[in-house]
Design goal:
The chain is an alpha+beta fold. It folds into two domains: 115 residues, Aminotransferase class 4, branched-chain amino acid transferase, N-terminal domain (D-amino Acid Aminotransferase, Chain A, domain 1, 2-Layer Sandwich), CATH 3.30.470; 153 residues, Alpha-Beta Barrel (D-amino Acid Aminotransferase, Chain A, domain 2), CATH 3.20.10.10. 26% of the residues lie in helices and 28% in strands. The strands form two sheets. Strands 8, 9, 10, 11, 12, 13, 14, 15 and 16 form a nine-stranded mixed beta sheet that branches. Strands 1, 2, 3, 4, 5, 6 and 7 form a seven-stranded antiparallel beta sheet that branches. The mean pLDDT is 96. The structure holds 4'-deoxy-4'-aminopyridoxal-5'-phosphate (PMP). 4'-deoxy-4'-aminopyridoxal-5'-phosphate binds next to helix 5.
Length: 296
């Protein structure tokens, strides 16, 4: 089973139903135009029980994405969090990936949605990018112009850009793509944000052409706690390639080191980088084990 089997249930508009029996209308804007918003959330099996990491932040972003896209969001976020815990319990999931999707009703026109549905699904998913250092290429695809769409919304249609970029990267023999913004500055990966380390400091692209990652915000906070200087700024490809080390971060990817960008190999040994420290601290945070050392 990759995503569901005959016993899996999902949450749809207030009810739990069998995933195999769930139906959707094919005459809708979400299917045809990618006009929908979603989230990617993770739960962890911690010593305090199953915990959904940053549940509020994710459902807040889901609402904000819907508002930016003019998709109705008539849902109570606290109730959604409660139902997400129930969904995990019903499917006997502890370490899980959770996918809420807000999609639109029957309508084939290019007008704003007047009806929406929410579905929440969950399944077991290992680290999205694996745990090996990533071999990354600079994509020939740019992130979309922030004046043509809302780049800060996690909108389904935006992910066509991500699929094109990862397909190109994999066809070229790389693990992942790094996309630039319309000014050719570093933006983000297909589904993760990026940090670079140079001279004992961390740098990450400022907001504007990237998804404002919840993990990115968590890393910035961790830096404050750990007394690491972390600067948000525009980063050129040259600065990136001159960095000592770099890493991606995202809910599904967590913190994962980057071995090289195109044919430029980062000189620092991963285990000695600030990224590795952040990786350990992040793991401890999601597992609610801040007072313990964790083994990666
Ligand atoms: N950028 C993109 C394009 C993404 O899809 C994701 C994953 N949601 C991220 C960054 C990281 O965001 P987060 O840390 O909130 O998962």
């Amino acid at each position: 089973m990759e995503y569901y089997d005959s016993s899996t249930v999902l949450y749809l508009n207030g009810q739990f139903i069998k995933s195999a029996e769930a139906k959707t209308d094919l005459y809708g804007q979400s299917m045809h135009y990618g006009y929908a918003v979603f989230e990617g959330i993770k739960s962890y099996h911690t010593h305090n029980g199953t915990r959904i990491f940053k549940a509020k932040e994710h459902y807040d972003r889901l609402q904000r994405s819907a508002e930016l896209m003019h998709i109705p969001f008539p849902f109570d976020k606290n109730e959604l969090i409660k139902q997400t815990y129930k969904l995990l319990e019903k499917n006997n999931l502890k370490d899980a990936y959770i996918r809420p999707l807000v999609y639109c009703g029957t309508n084939m026109s290019l007008s704003q949605a007047t009806e929406s549905s929410i579905v929440i699904m969950a399944w077991e998913w290992g680290a999205y990018l694996g745990c090996k250092l990533q071999r990354v290429c600079i994509s020939s695809y740019q992130r979309p112009n922030p004046k043509s769409i809302h780049i800060e919304a996690k909108a389904s249609g935006n992910y066509i850009n991500s699929i094109l970029a990862t397909t190109e990267a994999k066809n070229k023999g790389f693990d992942e793509a790094l996309l630039l913004d319309i000014d050719n500055n570093v933006a983000e990966a297909s589904g993760a944000n990026i940090f670079i380390e140079k001279g004992g400091k961390l740098y990450t692209p400022s907001l504007g052409s990237i998804l404002p990652g919840i993990t990115r915000a968590t890393v910035i906070k961790l830096c404050k706690t750990l007394d690491i200087d972390c600067i948000e700024k525009k980063i050129s490809v040259e600065e990136l390639k001159n960095a000592d080390s770099a890493f991606f971060c995202g809910t599904a990817a967590e913190i994962i080191g980057i071995a090289c960008i195109d044919d430029t190999i980062f000189p620092a040994t991963w285990t000695e980088t600030l990224g590795a420290t952040i990786q350990r601290t992040y793991k401890a945070l999601v597992l609610e084990k801040q007072n313990y050392e964790v083994i990666i």
